Amino acid sequence: MARYDVPAENHDRVLELLRQLAEASRAEPGNLAFDIFEDIDDPTRIVLLERYVSRDAFAAHRETDHFRDLVLGQIVPLLTSRTVEQLDAEDQ
Amino acid sequence: MARYDVPAENHDRVLELLRQLAEASRAEPGNLAFDIFEDIDDPTRIVLLERYVSRDAFAAHRETDHFRDLVLGQIVPLLTSRTVEQLDAEDQ
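Structure tokens for the assembled complex are given below, as produced in the milestone run.
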């Protein structure tokens, strides 16, 4: 789960980049889901819910060109904050 | 973290109820945050990110009148699915 704070002026650009990232990530063999959520009352708050078959698959995701180019290269510089939590699936 | 699938015809009503729930929940002594997110490409997918000072505080939340009335009594019947994951905060 990743949580982004996006300055209003960067909002549309970040969403555009995130859609590109989602498309590329969903094509990864180890990816099960990549969904982008926005706070209904505060569009500067974005949450990414990604699901991978394993922790290794998630690690492999972070080694891909699209992660380096889109996340590290383009998206992160547009954010005011970013936190990432690695969670083990436990549906109740 | 709660994930709801909301039929389109119930969307606005569920959001209205969730805002009431958020307001009541934020007033609980053990609550740190209650945020409502919507999938940017699929408004039928809603995610609630709630944060409590302890697991006991989260348990107390589920014993409140507003939880019983709003969640169990009004919101759940309007959903097609609901999953709840209890996560221990580990910001990276």
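The domain at 2-84 of chain B is CATH 3.30.70.100 (Alpha-Beta Plaits). Chain B has one domain: 2-84. Further analysis is deferred to the final report.
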